[in-house]
Each structure stands twice: as structure tokens, then as C-alpha cells.
Amino acid sequence: MASSGLELLWVSAPQLITGAGRTLGISLLAIVFSSVGGLCYGVLRSLGKRWLEIPLRIYLELFRAIPVLVWLYLFFFGLPIFFGLSIPAFWCAVLVLSLWGASEVGEVVRGGLRSIPRGQREAGLAIGLGLGQLYGRVLLPQALKRLTPPVINVYTRLIKTSSLAVLIGVIDITKVGQQIIERTYESVLIYGFLFLFFFIVCYPLSAASRVLERRWNHA
């Protein structure tokens, strides 16, 4: 039984590797775009400008209130119907996860920046620093310790949520696993493999987040 299971995994390895590559590709791209977008979002909200606050707040609430799966369907099926714009499934998943992730990362960044004493901002402005210098040299470096653990947690959620891409036709590792199960009926083995894959990818990030949080709390 064990040998047949290993043989199945060996025979299916090319498919599984391809699927894993797509899953990791979606996740890594979404993490990069979420980080950039979230940083911009957090900085803009921390400025306290009302004309920025309202649209950014609406964006946040939309992505908090509506599940990621619904956004995937809206972008993948809705855009071609209403706007004649068709996005490949892979990039649709990257786009939706990036927008959702940016809202989550952005709130973390905003909270981290607001936790810095107001005197730091006032002192920076008083000595003639521009906004770019103020954030780049004073505020963001101080906020980094507060931001890193929760942002890493957002990254792990992005990786796990990427499995929803299968529902719009992305042949990721989850879809490959389903295809193998349909052929072989080895559901326990394949789902066990998928569990192990996501555990290996996500656990080091979660562990790093906890270690950093403990280290910086005691610093």
C-alpha cells in the first residue's frame, strides 16, 4: 500500500510540481503587490486627509465585507460580461488576491504608523523633513518592528486563500490533486499530500512571525 502510494506520487510528480509552481507563483506575486499596495494604502490613510480617507475606507470595507471567492467570480465572469474585458484566470487570481491583501496589509501599516508617538512626526516636520523623508527615515523604520509579525500572518492567509483560484479554472496544485483523485480515487493520499504542501509552505512563515514578535516584545 505504501509503495503504491509512493509510486502514484512519483508518477504524478510532474503534474504536482507544475501545479505547485502555479500556486506559489500566484502567492508570491500577490504578496509582492499586496506589500506595495498595502504600504501605499497605510501611508495615505495615516496622512489624515479626509478626501483620501473616504475612498480608502470604502475600498477597505468592500474587501472586508465581500468574500474573496465572490470577488474572483466578479472579476473573472463579470468583467467580460459588463465591460468586455477578459483576464486570464491566473492573473485574475493574482489581481483579486493582491487587492484583498493590500487592504489587509494596509490596515496593519496604518495601525503601526499611528502607534508611533505624534511627537516623532512633529519633530521631523519641525526640522524641515519632507513627507517622503519623514516616512522613509523616521516613521516607517520605527513601525517596522510592529508591522512585520502581523504582515507575515497576512502572507500566510494569502497563500492558503490562493487555493480558491481553482474555482475559476486555474490548474494549481489543488486542481491537480483533484484530477489525480478522479483518476485513482486515492483521496486520502492526495489530500494528505496537499495538507503537507501547504503546511511546509506556511508553517515557517507562522513560526518566523511568532519568533519575531517574541524577540521584539522583549527588546
UniProtKB/TrEMBL annotation:
<keyword id="KW-1003">Cell membrane</keyword>
<keyword id="KW-1133">Transmembrane helix</keyword>
<feature type="transmembrane region" description="Helical">
    <location>
        <begin position="188"/>
        <end position="206"/>
    </location>
</feature>
<keyword id="KW-0472">Membrane</keyword>
<dbReference type="GO" id="GO:0043190">
    <property type="term" value="C:ATP-binding cassette (ABC) transporter complex"/>
</dbReference>
<keyword id="KW-0812">Transmembrane</keyword>
<dbReference type="InterPro" id="IPR043429">
    <property type="entry name" value="ArtM/GltK/GlnP/TcyL/YhdX-like"/>
</dbReference>
<dbReference type="GO" id="GO:0006865">
    <property type="term" value="P:amino acid transport"/>
</dbReference>
<dbReference type="Pfam" id="PF00528">
    <property type="entry name" value="BPD_transp_1"/>
</dbReference>
<comment type="similarity">
    <text>Belongs to the binding-protein-dependent transport system permease family. HisMQ subfamily.</text>
</comment>
<dbReference type="GO" id="GO:0022857">
    <property type="term" value="F:transmembrane transporter activity"/>
</dbReference>
<keyword id="KW-0813">Transport</keyword>
<protein>
    <submittedName>
        <fullName>Glutamine/glutamate ABC transporter, permease protein</fullName>
    </submittedName>
</protein>
<dbReference type="InterPro" id="IPR010065">
    <property type="entry name" value="AA_ABC_transptr_permease_3TM"/>
</dbReference>
<keyword id="KW-0029">Amino-acid transport</keyword>
<dbReference type="InterPro" id="IPR035906">
    <property type="entry name" value="MetI-like_sf"/>
</dbReference>
<feature type="domain" description="ABC transmembrane type-1">
    <location>
        <begin position="20"/>
        <end position="207"/>
    </location>
</feature>
<feature type="transmembrane region" description="Helical">
    <location>
        <begin position="20"/>
        <end position="44"/>
    </location>
</feature>
<dbReference type="InterPro" id="IPR000515">
    <property type="entry name" value="MetI-like"/>
</dbReference>
